[in-house]
Amino acid sequence: MFEFIKGNLVHKGLDYVVVEVGGIGFRIYASMNTIAALGEANSQVTVHTHMNVKENEITLYGFATREELSSFEMLITVSGVGPRMALNVLSTLTSSELGLAVATEDYKTIAKSKGIGPKLAQRIILELKDKIKKSMDVDQIETAENTGVMIEGNIEKDAISALMVLGYSAKESASAVRKVYQKGLTLEETVKLALRKMHG
To answer: In this prediction, what percent of the chain has a pLDDT beyond 70?
Structure first.
């Protein structure tokens, strides 16, 4: 329903912010990374939002970037991961760090998040990689047909997976990685260069 909320940041709590729009204060639950990124109180902010509707409750979750929102929405599709737990992950890791952890199957990094044990961290990786793989399989065929180039290297594939956790499509991710990747680059360097390329 709400894509974003733009207004005056009037209060920052431990796990939420209050943004005033037209005399109404919206309580928006957020990760520690987003709370820090929004800056000082009494400043104008734009918060990308996800609305969670239950029988007797409507809750807003907010994010400083669209990438973090996309990561949140992917996390809550995982069995056993609710909105608050997803915020815990995104309070511990940035979206890029989460993408790299999923791509490299580094469950120990994800398990550093509050309330996330090793088993759940492994499930997050398994389910997200499965979603990404299904999307990549379809899109990589289209990419090959259109350009004649297949993504073959492990670092390239892992970089595409990491970008997809940030909400980019397989086609966008593959195109950006293909443009920046050179032998000798690490996964992290490849992802950073690809993000820079996409953001122009």
So the answer is: 89
Residues 20 and 89 in one domain: no
Distance of CA 71 to the CA centre of its chain: 2
Do 24 and 91 fall into the same domain? Answer: no
Cβ pair 161, 135 in contact under 8 A: no
Q: Average pLDDT of 89-112?
A: 92
**pTM of the full predicted structure?**
0.78
Is a pLDDT exceeding 80 seen at residue 155?
Answer: yes
Domain boundary among the residues 22, 48, 64 is at 64
pLDDT higher at 58 or 148? 58
Cα–Cα distance, 1 to 7 (Å, whole number)? 17
Q: CATH number of the domain at 82, please.
A: 1.10.150.20
> Structural domain of residue 26, as residue ranges?
4-64
Q: Are residues 96 and 43 in the same domain?
A: no
Assign 133 to helix, strand or coil: helix
Instruction: Give the C-alpha distances (Å, rounded to integers) separating 136 from 28, 49, 101, 164.
Output: 33, 27, 18, 9
Share of the chain above pLDDT 90, in %: 54
